[in-house]
Structure formats: structure tokens, C-alpha cells
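Hi R.,

Here's the chain you asked about this morning:
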Amino acid sequence: MVGASLQKYAPLSVETFRNWVGSRPDEERWELVDGIPMMMAPPTRDHQRIASNLERLLNDAIERLPDRSKARLQLSLPEFGLKCSLADIYKGTADAA
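And here is the predicted structure, written out as C-alpha cells:
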């Protein structure tokens, strides 16, 4: 239907998302992006290697942070997830396309 508006839903909390994902079939893979569940494609072997290397690098970087910064970072494994507040320690740059 052309011109139909999309229905808006309140963003899910991490706890609500985890409970919801627990009710889904094991073969489904989901991630939470800005409070919205997004279905993911199955990972490839190359993707798994990259994710493992990234996990190691992130853990090493977290260990080098001062204790007050570590308190704002939560790395959960093996279901890789990172929840952080980086406003004061990360200054991003725009991607020049």
C-alpha cells in the first residue's frame, strides 16, 4: 500500500530484548539496535575470526582504562555485546563519502 505509515513502537530495554530473544527459535540470531530488534544473518568463518580478534583487542583496551572508565563499560561474552557511554572518551569523525 503506497503511502502507508509505519507503526511506531517504544524501544525495547536490554532486559526485555533478552527475554524476548529467549523465546525465539535457536536458529534465529537477533541484535538490538537503538532499542529495535534486528534479525541477523548467520556468521561466516571469516566473520567469527574477526569477531574473536576484535573481542581480544577490546578486552585488552578495557584493561588499560582507568578504573572509573571501566565502570561504564560492560563486555558480555560469548554472546558478544558492548554497552557503553563513550561521550566523554570518544570523539568520532564523520565518514567522508
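One quick note: The first strand starts at residue 29 and ends at 33.

Cheers,
M.
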